[in-house]
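Appendix B.2, paired examples.
Example (i):
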Amino acid sequence: MNTLTITIPARKVVVDVPYNMQLFVEIVQAIKNNKKINAIKLTRQATGYGLKEAKEYVEELEPKLEHGLMETIESDYPELFL
């Protein structure tokens, strides 16, 4: 999987992102909306991961949302939110 790394400087949080940012945003939004199963499905679609790996990815991503991940994405990639 090709990845793009997003760093949140204030919190020193690093996230490996599937290179399709639009799908990543959908994954993050699904997590924020408590739609974990949908987030796992989208992760599998974006990464080619199996069920276990996709679930682990989503579970690792959840706490990072509390550290300003979505805000960083919104400021760095505003075109995804038009």
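Example (ii):
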Amino acid sequence: MTDDAADEDVMTPEQLAGDVAAATTALAAAISELPPPEPALDALPDLLPLALGSPRKVVTGTSSSTAAPYADAREHLAAVLDVVAARATLSIAEAWHTGRISAPGGD
């Protein structure tokens, strides 16, 4: 293989630019000939899926409360954890009282 044969396979920048321009023109013509897309159908039906139950009703704040709002998220989280602790304590006490849980016998 000689240098002349290798040079025949290499395109000059002008040839490459001409090929890119021709390809761009052909692509633009092909795109303009495509039919317009069909209108999209609504992805969601009008009826709501109820597998997880009916949607919750939005409650508006019409009642008057004398409680002050939480100062920050930490205060709210502390109150929620207090409720969780109280419910867990109540569940354990009820289970102990009914005999579902008991201490192992000392005998």
